[in-house]
Amino acid sequence: MTSVHPSEQPAGPSAPPPGVSETLAAGRILPVVVLEDARAAAPLGAALTAGGLRTVEVTFRTDAAVDAIRAMSEDPRLFVGAGTVLTPGQVDEAVAAGARFIVCPGFSPRVVAHCQQVGVPVFPGAATPTEIQMAIDAGLDTVKFFPAEQLGGVPMIKALAAPFRAIRFIPTGGVHTGNLRDYLGLPSVLAVGGTWMVAPGLLAEGRWDDVTELTAAAVAAARKS
Ligand SMILES: O=C(O)C(=O)C[C@H](O)[C@H](O)COP(=O)(O)O
């Protein structure tokens, strides 16, 4: 990239601290994990790092989330966040378990405010201009764009990025190795998220070599963008 995107200028006081954004900007891929059994967290973390990624989002879609966040946070190679966070209580549970960032599917003013109060970076979902303005009003500069493909994918992000020049997106939903470069080629995209390298079937069967292989393929594709 030859030009500097406005979002790379010094961030505001409420923006995520450099740790999260830098780690995401380095790997450019955020695996979104749905774990049924927290005992799989450690081998999964090892498989992801072997494939070249260290940032991971563990979703609150299952009861194993808190234990999985705790287990993965013990691995110093990993930068663990919590996803599908819908309530302030889940923010507290996630942070107590070691989560270093919070991701939400949509924009909840009370979840965002609570994250800011406890000092944990938050990436809320924002799918419309109104929701993006809510994020800006809250002092944020990065949002999840979910479900990315269903909402219009790359053309939609281009259209949204035009008026919101300082906003960065983490498109998630329908992203995979075959299309991630289209997203990562946009200057407004910080990283892409998705489940394709950590599909529930792979995790249930403990197919860690496959997770590593899919992760490495995604990392290689991202490097070409
Ligand atoms: O659970 C959440 O909080 C979400 O927002 C949903 C996930 O990020 C998407 O389901 C990932 O989408 P796929 O990669 O297409 O599977």
From TrEMBL:
Species for this entry: Micromonospora radicis
Assembly: Homotrimer.
The keyword Lyase is annotated on this UniProt entry: yes
Catalytic activity: 2-dehydro-3-deoxy-6-phospho-D-gluconate = D-glyceraldehyde 3-phosphate + pyruvate
Pathway assigned in UniProt: Carbohydrate acid metabolism; 2-dehydro-3-deoxy-D-gluconate degradation; D-glyceraldehyde 3-phosphate and pyruvate from 2-dehydro-3-deoxy-D-gluconate: step 2/2
PANTHER family: 2-DEHYDRO-3-DEOXY-6-PHOSPHOGALACTONATE ALDOLASE-RELATED (PTHR30246:SF1), 2-KETO-3-DEOXY-6-PHOSPHOGLUCONATE ALDOLASE (PTHR30246)
Database matches in SUPFAM superfamilies: Aldolase (SSF51569)
PROSITE patterns: ALDOLASE_KDPG_KHG_1, ALDOLASE_KDPG_KHG_2
Assigned EC number: 4.1.2.14
Protein name: 2-dehydro-3-deoxy-phosphogluconate aldolase
The organism's taxonomic lineage, starting at the top: Bacteria, Bacillati, Actinomycetota, Actinomycetes, Micromonosporales
Keywords, ordered alphabetically: Carbohydrate metabolism, Lyase, Schiff base
Compositionally biased intervals (Low complexity): 1-12
Key word Ribonucleoprotein present: no
